[in-house]
Structures are given as structure tokens and as C-alpha cells.
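Re-running Microcin ABC transporter permease to confirm reproducibility after the cluster update. Everything else is unchanged from the original entry.
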Amino acid sequence: MGAYILRRLLLIIPTLLGILVINFTLVQFVPGGPVEQILAQMQGEGDVFSSFSGGDQDVGEETFGSDSQYVGARGLDKEFIAELERQYGLDKPPLERFMKMLWDYARFDFGESYFRSISVVDLVLEKMPVSISLGLWSTLLAYLISIPLGIRKAVRDGAPFDTWTSGILIAAYAIPNFLFAILLLVLFAGGSYFQLFPLRGLVSDNFEELSILGKVADYFWHLALPLTASLISAFTFSALLTKNSFLDELSKQYVITARAKGLSETRVLYGHVFRNAMLIVIAGIPGAFIGIFFGQSLLIETIFSLDGLGRMLFEATVARDYPVMFGTLYVFGLIGLLVAIISDLMYVFVDPRIDFERREG
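Result of re-run:
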């Protein structure tokens, strides 16, 4: 198993390299870099996207700097533009910039944010607890709900309980997370009805003054609505997957034999069926975590004003803050690859008969 884990760890390197190559290449063709952002702000246009919105301009106007490659550079000193390029490291060829980025990232040196005067590592560490909290708690609660529910549905397959719970699960899966999140805000966070939960943030302003129990209660009080919005579709798929996996195992010969020996239904379910049926469910844990951590973090964090990695990545992309963009994507990719390895280890933990080294050999 050690050799297999080592091979998987070594595969992280080319995978991360591919992620960086693709994203770096795409950035070279996307209009509106950090220099354009500064120029747009100087022109009073707010951001670079306003420069592409149209409007009548006299393209034949003789203004100093009109031959610049940057939108909004007309009328500005070329030396000023060159200084901006040097400040953001854009005065070097793309290949040289990419190679420098690889060397820095190999040492986990992500540089400094263009617009916040803080290192990317400090920014990631500052925002990480919010995204990790949302991803871990959502995944944990989703499986704590879905596994018992799926087993119960499998045992009572075709019964009224299975029918009406399936209807609820299908309806819950069809509701978009962001729509349900907005509904929760309107109903329970001071919208048009009740003010039961806070509208924004992960903790209260007086968090440091609270006791230990008070801090725990305040933390989960703020997480209640975001977690509920994340769970609405996360546990539905897992519950149906658990049910189908158990139904498949319950029809096999070893279950019939175990029942014929007089074993109790609990012993059959949790002593024999559970280990085999849970393999496919466990395989979905990394996907569920990554889906919540990556996919839902942006919407949930934005709607509930949670200052996490997803929201930071979105803001950095809009502002063309390249160090924050690439650093966050690097962290996302690394976490995803490590979680996939943990998934394989969980396979072996649940069923020691699985041997990845022998299968690869």
C-alpha cells in the first residue's frame, strides 16, 4: 500500500502542472489584466469591463499613448505604463513568467496580491476556515442523514415510507442551492418574516468575549442557514445511492444464506451487507466534499456574506488579481487530489480485501 500511495503522491505533480498550464494559457487570451484595471480606475470607469461596453470614441484622435495595447491608455505616459508592467511582472515574456511561477509554487511561494498588499498564503489561510467549515460539516451531515435514511428505504422498499421519502428527495434534489439559500434568508434571516439567524459572517462581533460553549453555539448559529442550503441536494443523491447499493446486496446469495442460518436482520444488515454496500457510497465522499467545497462555496459564501475561498477567488478573477487566482486554484487542485487519495485509503479501511498494489500490478 505504501508504494501505491507514493505513486499517487507523485502523480500530483504532473496534475498540478497541467492545471497551471491550462489556467495560465487561458489568462493570456482573456482581455482585461491588472494594468487595464488600474487604467480603468484612473479613467473613473470603475473597472476594466466598462471600457469594453462601447460608447462613441474618436479613434482618430491624436493623443499621446494611443498606440498602447491597453484599453484606456490614451493620454498616459508610456513610461508610466511600462512601470505598471514592471510592478506586476508583465514586462517579461509569458514563458519566463510561467517558469518563475512554477519555481515559486514548488516552494509554496504564491507571491503577493496585486491590490491588497498581503501575501497570497496569508489570504488563503485567512479564508480557508470558512470554506473548510462549510465543506466538512456539509459533507459530514449529508452522510449522517443519507446513510441511515438510505438503509431504511432499502429495508422498506416499496412501502409508503419509501414512496413519500423518495418524493421529498427528488423535490429537494431539483431545487437549486442558491434559490433555496435566498428562500432561507427571506424566511429566517430578517427578510420578510422572521429574524432567527444572522444575515452574514461566520461568527458574531463579540465572539472573543464569549465562553467556550457560547463560541460553539455562536459558530453553529451562523452556520445553520448556509449548511441547510448546502445540504438540500448533497444528501439526496447519497441517500438514493445508499438505498440502491443495499438493495443490490440484499438480493445476493450470501444474504439469503445468512438469514437461513438464523442471524438477526440487524446482524445481516450491519455485519454482512454494510461493508459491501458502503464501498460505492464511500467512493462518493470525495466527490461530495469537492462539489461542496468548490462548486457551492462561491454561491453560498456570496449569498450569506461568508468570507471564504470561493468568494475570494471570484473577486480576484473580476479584479484580475493573478497571484490570488492562481494561488487559490493551486490550493483547490491540491486539496482535491489529496482527498482522492484519502478516498482510496477509506476503501481499504472498509474492506481490507481491496489491494490497489496488486490490482495495478
